[in-house]
Amino acid sequence: MTEIRMTTEIRTDFDCETTGLPAERWGEAVFKIQEQEIVMEVSVEKDIIVAIMVDEATAWKGTLAGLRQLIKGANAGPATKSG
Questions:
Q1: What is this structure's pTM?
Q2: Mean pLDDT of all residues in 7-32
Q3: Does residue 63 carry a pLDDT above 50?
Q4: In whole numbers, what is the pLDDT of the chain averaged over residues?
Q5: Of 14, 28, 36, 72, which has the fewest beta carbons less than 10 angstroms from its beta carbon?
Q6: pLDDT at residue 83, as a whole number
């Protein structure tokens, strides 16, 4: 029997919600905007791996720890000199 290692949820501003979608190894959310597509994929096979794709190109892929660092760095803003 397969093991459920993660569950997914999807919510929209139209009060639509789907919860508890089971996954053993990976899951992805696909957002379609006219002819464009944004995909977020999460894999839990070994480490937690996150991939963000725009259309068919991978924009970023790495570990969950790496994504946290990327977001932390983006939130820090540019370095400034005191002076």
A1: 0.78
A2: 94
A3: yes
A4: 89
A5: 14
A6: 46
Mode of pairing for the β-strands spanning 17-23 and 26-33: unpaired
- 74 with 59: CB under 8 angstroms? no
Using alpha carbons, list the distances in angstroms from residue 59 to 9, 41, 45, 51. Answer: 23, 12, 21, 8
In the chain, what are the domain boundaries? Answer: 25-72
| Cα–Cα distance, 57 to 26 (Å, whole number) | 19
Residue 49 in contact with residue 63, Cβ under 8 Å?
A: yes
CA atoms within 13 A on the CB side of 57: 2
In angstroms, the CA 50 to CA 67 distance is 8
